[in-house]
Amino acid sequence: MKLSRIRDRLHWGWNITARKLGEPAIAYRPHDAGDPLAPANRYLRLPAVFTPVGADSGKAPGSLLYTGTYDASYTRPGDYLVQGDRTWFIASQDALLPSLCVEANRVVSFARPAQPASTGANPYSGVTTAGSTPLTGPWPAGMRGHSNAGRSEAGLPTDLALAYWTVLLPPIPSVALQVSDLMSDDLGRSGVVAAAEFSRLGWNLTVRESST
Fold first, then answer.
1. Does the pLDDT at position 113 exceed 70?
2. Domain boundaries in the chain?
3. Radius of gyration of the chain (CA)
4. If residue 140 lies in a helix (H) or strand (E), which one and from where to where?
5. CATH number for the 106-210 domain, one of 2.40.128, 2.40.10, 2.60.40, 1.10.1740?
6. Left, alpha or beta for 78 (phi > 0: left; psi -120 to 50: alpha)?
7. What is the pLDDT of residues 52-84, one digit of tens each?
8. CA angle at residue 63 from 60 to 67, to 5 degrees?
9. pTM to 2 decimals?
10. Which residue has the higher pLDDT, 89 or 160?
11. In contact, 48 and 25? CB cutoff 8 Å
12. Which of 4, 18, 23, 55 could form a disulfide with 60 if both were Cys (CB 3.0 to 4.6 A apart)?
């Protein structure tokens, strides 16, 4: 039997399962760095079931990773699926395997700080929001705090632990995120990208909270 035929039968079976056990979801496909959930990006309505990865082993609470069960004939990695008040993006959709999805529990946006205009004496050139260039609109993202947040090396009694976040995002059209890019979220918090790794599953960022 051809692989395409096997894949078609699997998708048909997942669709039957989702219709019986799931709820309708709306699929969005980003075409630029603006809001990926803009009405113009909506392209499909389909039933879907999302199950936390590790649910059978008791490791599911707090996880951002989900197995998506739905007809994957028309979806692809990077698409968003909105079901009620919850949002996921598709991280991978390998042949013959269920889809791996990331729950987007926060909405973030990015900007790039201005660079010195000339050599020699320049105004303050630290990382600030003033004069920064917006990179994206509001993007739903998976966001979790680090368990090993560090402290200031000064060692003062009033030092507070530095907040670090892991931020997961799908590929953003025409945008390559970099260290020192600025991030803000829907809770009004600000951060600076400390590490940016891109893989076939999308962006994996380490972001340090800042007051800028």
1. yes
2. 3-103, 106-210
3. 20
4. strand 139-145
5. 2.40.10
6. left
7. 997 665 555 568 999 999 999 999 999 999 999
8. 75
9. 0.85
10. 89
11. yes
12. 55
